[in-house]
Amino acid sequence: MLATGIQKNKLFMEYEPLLNAMGIALVEINRVDRGNSVIVTMVIVAKETEVSIDHCAKVYRLAYPRMELQLGERDLQLEVSTPGLQRTFKDVYEFSLFTGKRARVYDTSKEAWVSGIITQADEKTVQLAQVYIEDEKEMIDTMSVEFSVIQKAKLDYRWEDDSHGN
């Protein structure tokens, strides 16, 4: 089952508003303390465009000095990255970030993988369009899936068919 509550994470609450002001959404943030070192990983998406290495660099330049001040003498390793083409969702919050993207979810009520474009997500369900139910080899226009029946979910990138004369 997918987790809930990343938005209540202390680091998330500190950095999400800063990134939001830059037109960037925070997908995930994690901190690992190892002795005198601290490792922080951030995953981001751009709100109005595809996320790029420039977005990652901007976030790094914003977050690193701020984190370094808070840590004092401790060593900081910060990694800022994109979600990747086939990101595995860790929190239901991610469905709202990837509206317009194709996702693949394992629906325990159907006991099947369901693939569709995320059109909307609220606190209980995700709406999918152009839905393909893999085990049934069935296509339907739209489908609503409750988060409670989603065992796994990930982005479902489809390579464009380039056989049409390009």
UniProtKB/TrEMBL annotation:
GO cellular component: cytosol
Domain Ribosome maturation factor RimP N-terminal: 16-85
InterPro entries associated with the record: Ribosome_maturation_RimP, RimP_N, RimP_N_sf
Subcellular location(s) per record: Cytoplasm
Keyword field: Cytoplasm, Ribosome biogenesis
Entry annotated with the keyword Cytoplasm: yes
Leader sequence segment: none
GO terms for biological process, alphabetical: ribosomal small subunit assembly; translation
HAMAP family in alphabetical order: RimP (MF_01077)
Similarity remark: Belongs to the RimP family.
Cited function: Required for maturation of 30S ribosomal subunits.
Protein name per UniProt: Ribosome maturation factor RimP
Organism: Sphaerochaeta globosa (strain ATCC BAA-1886 / DSM 22777 / Buddy)
Gene: rimP
